[in-house]
Design a protein that fits this description.
52% of the residues lie in helices and 12% in strands. The chain contains 27 helices and 17 strands. α12 runs parallel beside α19, α23 runs antiparallel to α24 and α23 packs parallel to α25. Bound molecules: adenosine-5'-diphosphate and magnesium ion.
Length: 725
């Protein structure tokens, strides 16, 4: 009998809901209590200082040392009242986690212990963080990396530590993190979108990108998790026959939340609210064991920080409830994977959502302008957008079980699709648009209710869907830092808006009305980018064929897709907007490629270990039982009834042979790949030569799982892991 698996099952049954007493906790009474937000600044900073800091943040002006000293002082006082003893610069290196290195307020001044926190250390630090991936930007003799305060995202307290959101850059000024290029891309978006917005609303001063993420995840009992070496090391199951019952009855989706999970969710929400993360929605997702949480949307920089923080809080909170959180995009084969839908839009300082259809013609011309420019931006930069969401994990999810395929396309909804079809057709005719056509593309006011209705009927199969007043980028992976896709999207749209403005200014200089000139350009754009629009079922095989015929990129191989980071188009876009330099892009591509081949390397080692040391010995033991039984029953007078037992014995041998041969060949392929020094080339070798063995080995193992005595099987089964809540 398998001691480990049955012990794990037994332990999991002892895990009851962990009651956390928050019956009296109402979010409004403690929301953001651990955040040095606007109200704390007003309270803890002298009035003049507070006003200056606010102005600097609003206008993007650098905070000088003297001002920083004042802020540090107020921050320290506030933090110490919360019992804080340490501070850390909190940053987002190019890994899947945040980073922190704590220092104490405690220091010695001439031998006397004092507590100190000055503007100097608030503003900048030099952490000894030379082991983070830098893609060759930091070589060892020049390994200095700096963190610098991002005053646009408020400091917060976790436990006894004051956390200061920072960017992470090299000695030579290159970005080593997600936040630096994100802030640069938001600047570019502000500049270009404000300029375009001014044609319609001259009073506009600023445009902010907005993001509301939806975070999907799996919860698994910690005892069962501990009995699965693949979950521990890879975050996903490398084997396991699918459960007879999984998600086919749709009885989990939006179902009643299990009590144990509910306690976890409430605990998590309290933690989030204390840190000012405005989570608001919680529910069961489609797959058994899968859940989702979502906040109220925020300005992108803050939303990204909050999501990174959330992922950390999820892991920590889950431990208190004897759960483990799986953020991997595809932890279980044959049920849904997890994504992180990034709801994205732009808002002006005057309160206009630029992706909201308006109630007046000027507003709708503005709406159409932004809509069509985004379509053009996505069309032109589809490869980059795909690269921004591609990882070893997401590669498993995209195109499988109700996840968008690896083809970037845009869903608009019937009404808008019709509007753009008219615009395209009329443009193709080459004539000036008639007043009635103009009226209809500007979304006659009467049609607005119809549009809104349409928006509720959104296409859940689309990787990039318009959902009424925002786009929902659904191809993003659940473990990802949202910044990656936001940097790509903000930049693509900024680059496009800049081109649009140039073209429009040139056209206006030739005469004609704003409306006629705008519609002429939008008509041309629509015609050019029409092939990216798709209203149908993205899951279907027909779409794959059609997309290929339309000339869209259908590659689903992560290393292939990563090539887009260093294409001429990407480099010129990012350099012109000053978001990332060629060197920084090359470094990023290198880091992502390295991450890819390392992940597959780990998985392949775990696979071989599990196959050879757990599965094969178990299969042999069971086979021996069969052999013994076969021999023992022989001659008892019903030989013909036990003859078929030989078939089973033979089939087991066949599977064992398959496993052994494929493991050996996979090892060879892996060792060959490891001789390649270039990270992208090595990633390609892993993708082409190592990855194919996983399915072969898994198939043989999963077949054995069906044959071998249940009591002997060493690894928790799918039906046990997915229904342990
Ligand atoms: P769904 O129906 O797609 O599951 P949810 O309510 O779970 O929707 O999530 C929608 C997300 O979109 C929320 O985080 C919400 O705040 C966000 N959102 C709404 N409007 C905007 C906007 N203008 N910009 C960015 N995000 C938005
Ligand atoms: Mg959604």
């Amino acid at each position: 009998m398998s001691a480990i698996r049955f012990k794990a099952l037994e332990d999991s049954l002892t895990h009851k809901p962990v009651k956390v007493n928050h019956s009296e906790d109402r979010a409004i009474t403690f929301y953001a209590c651990n955040v040095f937000d606007d109200s704390k600044m007003a309270q803890y900073l002298p009035e003049g200082v507070y006003k200056k800091v606010k102005k600097c943040i609003a206008e993007g002006i650098n905070i000088d040392r003297e001002l920083a000293d004042h802020v540090a002082n107020g921050m320290k006082q506030w933090a110490m009242e919360l019992g804080v003893t340490h501070y850390t610069h909190w940053f987002q290196p190019l890994t899947e986690a945040s980073a922190e290195k704590h220092d104490s307020f405690f220091t010695l001044a001439n031998g006397t212990p004092v507590e100190s926190f000055e503007g100097k250390v608030l503003a900048q630090q030099e952490p000894d963080a030379s082991s983070f991936p830098s893609g060759g930007i930091r070589n060892t003799f020049e390994a200095r990396g700096y963190t610098a305060w991002d005053p646009t995202s408020p400091a917060f307290v976790i436990g006894s530590t004051l956390c200061i959101p920072t960017v992470f850059i090299s000695y030579t000024g290159e970005a080593l993190d997600y936040k630096t290029p994100l802030l640069r891309s938001l600047n570019a978006l502000d500049k270009t979108a404000t300029a375009v917005c001014k044609y319609f609303n001259p009073e506009t001063k600023r445009v902010n990108g907005t993001l509301g993420w939806e975070q999907e995840y799996f919860l698994i009992d910690e005892a069962l998790f501990a009995a699965r070496p693949d979950l521990i090391s890879c975050g996903r199951t490398l084997m396991g026959h699918n459960s007879a019952k999984n998600q086919q009855l749709d009885d989990h989706y939006f179902g009643s939340i299990p009590e144990r999970v509910m306690e976890y969710m409430q605990d998590l929400e309290v933690e989030c609210h204390k840190l000012g993360i405005p989570v608001r929605t919680r529910h069961n997702e489609v797959a058994p064991g899968q859940f989702e949480c979502a906040p109220i949307f925020e300005e992108i920089n803050l939303a990204v920080d909050h999501n990174v923080l959330l992922m950390d809080l999820m892991m920590k909170t889950a431990r208190r409830h004897n759960f483990r959180v799986l953020l991997h995009e595809k932890p279980f084969a044959s049920v849904n994977g997890s994504g992180k839908h990034n709801n994205w839009s732009m808002a002006t300082d005057t309160g206009i959502n630029l992706l909201s259809p308006a109630k007046d013609e000027n507003g709708n011309l503005r709406f159409l302008t932004f809509l069509v420019n985004i379509i053009k931006a996505v069309y032109e930069n589809a490869d980059l957008l795909k690269a921004s969401i591609m990882t070893a994990g997401n590669e498993h999810r995209l195109g499988a079980n109700e996840a968008p395929p690896c083809i970037i396309s845009i869903f608009l909804g019937a009404q808008l699709a019709k509007t753009l079809a008219i615009l395209k057709e009329e443009t193709e005719k080459g004539k000036i648009l008639t007043p009635s056509v103009k009226k209809s593309v500007k979304l006659n006011i009467e049609q607005i209710p119809e549009i809104l209705l349409d928006n509720t009927d959104r296409n859940r199969t689309s990787p990039f869907a318009f959902t009424g007043n925002r786009f929902e980028f659904r191809a993003v992976g659940s473990a990802a830092n949202c910044a990656s896709s936001m940097i790509a999207l903000n930049s693509a749209v900024s680059g496009q808006l800049e081109k649009f403005k140039q073209e429009l200014d040139a056209a206006l200089a030739q005469g004609g009305s704003l409306e006629d000139n705008v519609l002429a350009i939008l008509g041309r754009y629509t015609k050019q980018s029409y092939s990216i629009l798709f209203e149908g079922n993205n899951y279907s095989d027909e779409w794959k064929n059609e997309a290929e015929q339309r000339g869209l990129n259908i590659s689903g191989s992560c290393p292939e897709v990563l090539k887009a980071y260093t294409s001429e188009k990407t480099i010129s876009l990012f350099e012109s907007l000053k978001v990332l330099t060629k060197r920084e892009l090359e470094a990023r591509q290198d880091i992502y490629a390295e991450n890819y081949h390392k992940k597959i390397q780990i998985e392949s080692r775990v696979m071989v270990n599990l196959a050879m040391n757990h599965v094969v010995p178990t299969a042999i033991r069971y086979q021996n039982l069969l052999i013994e039984n076969y021999r023992g029953t022989k001659g008892l007078g019903f030989d013909e009834l036990v003859e078929n037992r030989l078939d089973t014995i033979k089939i087991i041998s066949q599977h064992i042979l398959n496993i052994k041969t494929n493991c050996k060949d996979m090892n060879t392929a892996r060792k060959n790949a490891d001789t390649i020094t270039d990270n992208l080339q090595r990633a390609l070798a892993y993708s082409q030569n190592v990855k194919p063995y996983f399915d072969k080995i898994r198939h043989a193992i999963d077949q054995l799982e069906l044959i071998v005595d249940d009591e002997m099987w060493p690894l928790p089964k799918y039906r046990e892991m997915l229904f342990c809540h």
